[in-house]
Hints:
Chain A is mostly helical. Chain A has 13 helices and four strands.
Amino acid sequence: MAGGAASGGKAQTDTYKEARTLLLLPSWLVLGFFVLIPVFMMLIYSFLTKEFRGGVIWEFSLAAYDQFFFDRGLFGDDAPSIEWTYINIFWRSIWQAGAATIFALLIGFPTAYFIATRPPNSRQMWVFLVTIPYWVNLLIRTVSMKFLLRDQGPLNDFLMGIGIVDSPIHIINTDFAVQLGLFYSYLPFMVLPIYAAVERYNFSLSEAAADLYASKWQTLRRVLLPAVKPGVIAGCILVFVPSLGSFLAPDLLGGAKNFMIGSLIEEQFKGNAGNWPFGAAASMILLSLVLIVLMLSARQQNKGEGV
Amino acid sequence: MAIVEDRNIIAVDVQNAVKRYGSFTALKTISLSIKDNEFFTLLGPSGCGKTTLLRIIGGFEELSEGAISLFGDEIAKLPPNKRPINTVFQNYALFPHMTIEENVMFGVEMRGGSKAEARQRASEMLDLVQLTQFASRKPSQLSGGQQQRVALARALAPEPKVLLLDEPLSALDLKLRQAMRYELKEIQRKAGITFIFVTHDQEEALTMSDRIAVMSSGELQQLGTAREIYESPHNTFVADFIGETNLLEVSVDALSGGSATCHLGGGHELICDEVKGVGVGAKVHLSIRPERLTLSDTPMEGASLSGVVRDNIYIGTDIQTIVDLNEGPQMVIRTSNSDRGNKRIFEPRSPVFVNMEKGAARLLAD
Ligand SMILES: Nc1ncnc2c1ncn2[C@@H]1O[C@H](COP(=O)(O)OP(=O)(O)OP(=O)(O)O)[C@@H](O)[C@H]1O
Ligand SMILES: [Mg+2]
């Protein structure tokens, strides 16, 4: 794309640049107003002092970050040691989001492949079918999931009905339930970019691989996957990032002990019990994590296309 | 060489192959035997089923009916990766994320060769197609002709027994295409394997092939050497499709001693060799190549048909003269420019005689 503009000669390039600046202006304004300014506010809040009934006192303080990383005892006067509570919550969030992403990839990739290999006129319909559940509000979907997975819910009734298990299996309030919830919340974000990539894939490459003695598995691993990698990476990011900060699924499906970052942050801003600077600090730490993930994947992508 | 070559080993044997797509029949009972070491060409107009037949041999398409064997072994049920056959695809289908070298190594590795072996083989093949200096580039950084040669090197690297080529030269410009014809032929000779080459370009087919199968609408029309097909076409389709020809409607007046006397209308008569299946009274076609005809202003011995020059068309190597036979059909005569010194060019509207060497006219059964 850049090549096309660059090859157009200098005068033309300048014209393009001007047009681009103008055309991008609305997006920049919206982005600035609704993303950059709030993020900047969060950054400032995270360095302020907390007010007890919620809100902040405009006084610089590192207390929020200190609370996140260090344990100074009940009265704050012990020698500081590492505070594991929040790091563990973060760690568990990463693990939960990662597991959900892997589930979404394992189910989403074959789904996307299936849709992309249907006759062109029926693909639209398949894509539509995939997105149908997502016309329903996320909260309602998650609550229904809770109902579905209950010990006395339809899933367990069914499993006992066909005699696979004698007593209900406990799914609700486990890590797995949260992963399932996250997976289900964000599955289309995995399917759609992979579908777009596979649809653009030139299937004669698979024929060429088979012609050159590659098995189905080797063709997948050495030819198809590298070709659709950008779509796979995009899908993984689109599932992983919102899963990481999600609070609905962990709250509703994970129970009290399966706290995730999203819930932690949410708590800080809810009602009077909250701690705004601490919530802001946790958000900033989460944001840094996400940015690192994005940067790593961007580097990976560049390396793949590198010449 | 001391090795005695058996010219009659059959590499690919297709028996009564039928291919249907729903209610449409793309191949209608095709049988052909392709010999080992042969440069075999499938020639025919667009949509006649060349690619379909090639894909069946490669294993990308299943036969609806019939059998196919490779050096005597039935292969109809083998998937492509189990057939010792490689393909140069029409669109090359080079792996875009791999370098040229990795592309060429791929087949050798997949066939069980070590990395070192594959690298060795790739360097030999890139040498053969003269692309060694591009080994570390990506396919998108090569020209069309270079990509085509990579596709060839990649297909040759795993040492297939049969190489399939689907219009590999069609994307190239004329000059490169002509150069590649000789290169391909040379590579086939050096590698000593069977090439099955698909084209709709009759000149390409004539210059490169040991044998040619002419196809049209899913049927085999004629199978033979370039010379047989050009000089003794079996039917109207082949005569018309290969090269240029005067296709005249005639009726057969008499048969005697292997010769047939044919009537062209307007009192013009021609004598040509008898052909099986054409009896007295038959209304059939006759094919005469324009370059086998000569012009003169007085009648010559043998067949000599009177007419009037309508036009001369200059086409580089030749001059094409269009003659209206008196009360008869139109004919095209080609006069080579190389020996024009000996020949007269007749101006339009001058009366001439069209002369034919014996055996130049060929009766067509259908
Ligand atoms: N998958 C398919 N489904 C239905 N019809 C098909 C299919 N593939 C090919 N055909 C039909 O079979 C016929 C033969 O096709 P094929 O591709 O073999 O032609 P071809 O001789 O290679 O032509 P070209 O020179 O244009 O490549 C065509 O009429 C085509 O429309
Ligand atoms: Mg074709």
